[in-house]
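note to self — DONT lose this again. spent like an hour looking for the file last time. sequence + predicted structure for the chain T wanted, 322 res
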Amino acid sequence: MNKGRIVNATFFGEFLISTVFAVLIVQVARPEILGISPTSGPEGSRVVITGKSLENVSGVLFGRTDSAFTLISPTEIIAFIPHKGITSAITVVSPVGRGLSPFAFVVTNDPRVPEEVSYKAGYVNLVRPPDDFKSALLWGIAIADTRIPGHESAKIEIASTQLTCRVDGKDVILNDDIGAVRGGLYRREPWFGIDQHDPMPVTHDAANHTVVLPVGQRPDRVWHFWSPSPRAAIPSGSLEGCTVKARVRIFPGALLQMGMDYWRTPTVAYGLGGTNHEAGASNWYFPSEQWQEATFTDIGGPQFSPGNGKHDAGAARGIWPW
């Protein structure tokens, strides 16, 4: 046996392995954050992270809190400011290391929104609904602000709700209701902690064709309402997105948010197993002496804040994940 050849083969093998390993290290570099934009905002808003070698990022942290995120390219990530997030640096995590933002993201929540609310800003789920989701349902959330003197008399008056979807470039009205909603009272602390809920008491103003939600009577609950009409089927074609509108009057001590969900079918029951996919929610609407049009749309993509694969159905409301 030629020992010299064995030594040379061993050396060549080790050299080859080390060379391949070095090439892999070069190809899979540690992620680096070069900038974030914007540099401040409320929880629920989005931040664009720019940097290098972001393609293998498996996690984004705000301080020590995990954030939902979407990888756009090896140089860009869109992240979601988490609930209860605090001013802190942003960290991106990958199998080969971590990258830290050069400065902290400053969390600036609107002080008019109570602390327990999740989330403080509107958002649009970046993940489109699955192709087999053929239905949509609008919803709203109303609460009383217990910090406001006289909140016991807080109420929200709803004149109408409407859901339209843009299919093949045309806006199609799916629901158009006047003076009626249905829904329930859900746990407020923790926010939508469980799916169990109580009946939602409402009154009607027949003369003005409106429905009244006396939220001040149950300030310990979230008044979660949705369209009184049957869940609508989305016409076949290329769906660009949907828009929710509600004509409301918000009295002192009350707040309102609008949103919508996509569903598999008009009749499938709610429950675990992926029956619904949240499109997102509007910013919060506040008291005014005038009637307001509260709106939400996911047409145009994540103009507020994105979700991603980690952003479960009903995430803003804390409803069971699927």
